Amino acid sequence: MRNQCSACSKCELFQGKLTISEDVKIMYKYHYCLSGIEKWKDCKRFVFTTNSGFCPDFVMPNSLLTIDQIWHKAQL
Questions:
Q1: CB atoms inside a 10 Å sphere around CB 10
Q2: 35 touches 3 (CB < 8 A)
């Protein structure tokens, strides 16, 4: 699917492996994962995964943390 994020196959949020409510998960999927590259660029999970190859579970698509803050928190 062309509008589906290229990181969906590795994303634990998209795969349903994170503990969040079903309605929030659906909102994230439709707003970020299935809405084309313009929305993927806004997703902190996509950006972090693109740069590192993984994404910590605490990172949500709309996280206010910077990439550096995520790296720091992931190292603890």
A1: 14
A2: yes
